[in-house]
């Protein structure tokens, strides 16, 4: 009798664990991931960010952030500034 009671209790605990995990934990984790993915960029969606990037590349060329300054460019005058535009700024360094 005691063996079947222990088996029944353990089985009930396993089912309760499965129910809590699959009915509560996994859906809450998925909702958390969706909220993070949707709201991580602020008011911009992924498509809007991609369009902004493509438009800026079409207008300005590729922008390379470089924090070392113009000393490194002394021997590189043959690079077309129209194709690649290097912006020296302290941001992002």
How would you sum up this structure in a few lines?
57% of the residues lie in helices and 11% in strands.
Largest sheet at a glance?
2 strands, parallel
Could you spell the SSE succession in H and E letters?
HHEE
* Average pLDDT number: 75
Classification by helices and strands: mainly alpha
Shape: rod-shaped
Uncertain stretches of 5 or more adjacent residues: 87-93
Strand portion, in percent?
A: 5-15%
- Radius of gyration (CA) equals 28 Å
Helical percentage: 55-70%
Strands of the largest sheet, in order across it? 1-2
Strands, count: 2
The count of helical stretches stands at 2
Alpha carbon gap, first and last residue: 72 Å
Helix and strand arrangement:
Blueprint: H1 2-39, H2 46-60, E1 62-66, E2 84-88
Describe this structure in words.
This protein has 93 residues and is mainly alpha-helical. Helix content is 57%, strand content 11%. The protein is built from two helices and two strands, in the order ααββ. The chain has helices at residues 2-39, 46-60, and strands at 62-66, 84-88. The chain has a two-stranded parallel ribbon. The protein is rod-shaped, with a radius of gyration of 28 Å. It starts with a helix and ends in a 5-residue tail after the last strand. Mean pLDDT is 75; it is low at 87-93.
């Amino acid at each position: 009798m005691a063996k079947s009671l222990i088996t029944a209790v353990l089985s009930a605990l396993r089912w309760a664990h499965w129910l809590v995990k699959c009915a509560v934990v996994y859906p809450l984790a998925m909702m958390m991931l969706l909220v993070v993915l949707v709201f991580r960029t602020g008011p911009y969606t992924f498509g809007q960010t991609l369009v902004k990037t493509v438009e800026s590349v079409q207008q300005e060329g590729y922008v390379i952030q470089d924090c070392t300054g113009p000393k490194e460019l002394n021997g590189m005058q043959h690079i077309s500034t129209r194709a690649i535009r290097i912006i020296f700024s302290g941001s992002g360094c």
